[in-house]
Structure prediction request, 306 residues.
Amino acid sequence: MQLDVEIVAEGLEFPEGPIAMSDGSVLLVEIRGGYLTRVTADGRVERLVHLGGGPNGAAIGPDGAVYVVSNGGFAWERTEVGIIPAGTPDGYAGGSVQRVDLSAGKVTTLYTACDGRPLRGPNDIVFDRAGGFYFTDLAKWNDDVQELGAVFYAAADGSRIKAIRRGLLTPNGIGLSPDGQVLYVAESLTARLWAFDILSPGVVAGSVGQWKPARHVWSAHGLAIYDSLAVEAGGAVCVATVIRGGIDVVSPDDASCDTLPLAAQMVTNLCFGGDDMRTAWITASNTGQLLRCRWPRPGLKPAFNA
Prediction:
């Protein structure tokens, strides 16, 4: 199947973390620019707040605020496919989780560490119906050193944070199943999709070690890097795919995958919106574009609908 995609906005500075709003607009982050930005339905770009660092993923919380996970910034490299991340920048000060009150224009930093260990590269975020949120930390890399990442669970009021799994290799996209009982995490460099069975909010079933941190759902075929993800109302997991360019739609029930190709090489994230949840908003980061298309099936509404 080929998606019929239109370009809604261009000139964005490495867009990610889209949130479909009820008025037809989309909130997103610009990692390279450090902004939380609104793109209206007709493509007008409004930079709302300069967060600095590297805002990477975003979600609406139970209080209506926007929660942003920040990787702390990247070094950047200009290539034939555009400007792309290239390791840790000079002056890197660490990762964080921020709360943005849009009505007041106020930004609050909720977390910079867990158990005394600094956050390194927070990447993607999803709220559960209990009002807490899970997020990934992809960690950092430089030359011949690649740090291991983690998955965390935290309270929206900044009162508590816990690591639910460490030792993952570049954990990136994160999402919940429609019944809220399974947490999905996509690893970038391995292009694997893992499923964590949730026992209670912030508590997941045990692993069998670093080589198998959760239930294995899918591994991409060919050369691909998995980025962020969204979940359909029917339970399929839609993983934005870099290098190959497109979206892998993985069925956890039968471990099958349908790849929907896109021209952009760095398809980094997507979300669903519209009255029927069949409008897909897709970030093409290397080209600085926000794309829109009709999706073949409805997406899952977030726990706290925007």
